[in-house]
């Protein structure tokens, strides 16, 4: 069973906001991590990480995860949360890093361009969340 994002959810998710990523097999209490992410055309969420991170090992044990995205301070309060199984893929990871670098940073800034170039030289894994449950609130 898959859950779907509304047009309002997508409007929030398509902005360059940090998502807070949590894995089911992680420590107790959960320890969310801020991540860059994007929503795909088919309604999945994807992010990237290095292949040797604790989150990769935790997802290998239990592939469930969640991502929460909230509107920034100064806007009306709203958030979207997606929970579901994940897949980890090496294909497309470098391209995702490149797209998200351009989304989150001003890559015309030489410092940021160099930082992104250094990131692109590293090894990455693409984590894809396939939402089974989507929750939201707006105040």
Automatic annotation (TrEMBL):
<feature type="domain" description="Pyridoxamine 5'-phosphate oxidase N-terminal">
    <location>
        <begin position="7"/>
        <end position="116"/>
    </location>
</feature>
<protein>
    <submittedName>
        <fullName>Pyridoxamine 5'-phosphate oxidase</fullName>
    </submittedName>
</protein>
<dbReference type="Pfam" id="PF01243">
    <property type="entry name" value="PNPOx_N"/>
</dbReference>
<dbReference type="InterPro" id="IPR012349">
    <property type="entry name" value="Split_barrel_FMN-bd"/>
</dbReference>
<dbReference type="InterPro" id="IPR011576">
    <property type="entry name" value="Pyridox_Oxase_N"/>
</dbReference>
């Amino acid at each position: 069973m898959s859950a779907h994002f509304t047009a309002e959810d997508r409007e929030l998710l398509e902005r360059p906001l940090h998502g807070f990523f949590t894995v089911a097999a992680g420590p107790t209490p959960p320890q969310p991590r801020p991540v860059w992410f994007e929503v795909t055309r088919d309604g999945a969420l994807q992010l990237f990480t290095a292949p040797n991170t604790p989150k990769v090992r935790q997802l290998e044990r239990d592939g469930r995860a969640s991502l929460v995205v909230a509107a920034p301070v100064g806007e009306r309060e709203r958030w979207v949360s997606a929970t579901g199984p994940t897949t980890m893929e090496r294909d497309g990871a470098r391209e995702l890093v490149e797209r998200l670098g351009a989304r989150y940073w001003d890559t015309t800034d030489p410092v940021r361009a160099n930082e992104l170039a250094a990131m692109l030289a590293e090894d990455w894994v693409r984590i894809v969340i396939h939402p089974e449950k989507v929750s939201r609130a707006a105040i």
